[in-house]
Amino acid sequence: MSSNAFPLNSMTTAAAKSFHQLPYVSLLRRYIPQPHKKSFRSVTPIHLMTLTREEEEVSEHVTKEEPKIKWADVGYAITEAQKQAISELSPKMSNRCKALMKRIICFSPQHESLPLLLASWVKAMKPRRADWLSILKEMKRVENPLLTKVMEYALLEDSFEANVRDYTKIIHIYGKHNLLDNAENAYHAMKSRGFTCDQVILTVLIDLYSKAGDFIRAKEVFEEIKLLGFSPDKRAYGSMVMAYIRANMLDCAENLIKEMEAQEVYAGKEVYKALLRAYSTIGDSNGAQRVFDAIQFAGIVPDTKLCALLVNAYCVAGESDKARSVLENMRSARLKPCDRCVSLMLSAYENENNLETTLAFLIELEEDGIMIGEEASQVLARWFRRLGVVDKVEEVLREFSDKKVKRNALF
Questions:
Q1: Which domain holds residue 387?
Q2: In a 10 Å sphere around its CB, with 0-12 CB exposed, 13-18 middle and 19+ buried, how is residue 160 labelled?
Q3: Which of 316, 335, 354 is a domain's end point?
Q4: Of 169, 200, 199, which is closest to residue 186 (Cα–Cα)?
């Protein structure tokens, strides 16, 4: 081997290896542009190291600076109302529950996080289900606006030991506040956790959809109850009847009430009243009378408001004689006609332009000691003003009264 050759054994250092590669590298560098040495050597590694160090510093800062809540002290900047609320906490509450309730009463969303507060309480106090229920009961009693948020958090806590009834309650609360999406999310969350739907929660859903005016979904859930082998109870039937009424399907609502009666299940007074009002508004006197009879069959004693709806149905239908019969039946049952009933009768007589019958009706009311109210007085004033006999009304009333007295004397 030539003496000018470089022995391989002698090329052991890094400098020697670099020198050995220089001829090839120098040739390639003529055709391939190289990055700036300074940039190549420093940017990427230092940048990554800087990010890593920053993340470590942030992590250490979060760990060190995490606030520790002093449960025994709620601070001094609390209002008199908050002090009063704290003083009214139930003496039966445990100390761990009182500690959280004080924080909830004085909670400020601008300075605190409710999830962090609850998480800290769970970590420090190790609550049981009874503690959660005590908190929720007290919040419901004082109508605390954070009740729903606390319930949402509790449902996900192992210590709460959530069950189907807990989801039923929160879905019912959502329904009362017309939060349909929240209610559905809670329902699906319940199913995803493996809880089985029962008749109670399905009934709550029917009521929810009924009040929201979603007839189709209310009907689907109602049918689901039957498919699962359950018999709809009074509340499920009532909610479905209301769904039919809101959808203006009065015949279906009435048929469902008949189905209930066949099973000796009777709707509540408000359900009957809603159906009666629906028939009354459109002047369907036959439908109104059927519902009125069903009310009595269900053992509900009609009051003046129910009677007024029946009177209105006959008046709208132009059947003043039958409306008058309803008033006579009320008087026989010792029910004093309300001002609404009287004004409806007067409006019906006005439409018929039946002044003589109107005056006779007014005299009978006077004899029974029934005073004309504001609404009925407005109807009379409008009618007599149109006839131009306002000044002669009292004179005519006196004449009719005298004739009535003489006629009674003869008999």
A1: 338-411
A2: buried
A3: 335
A4: 169
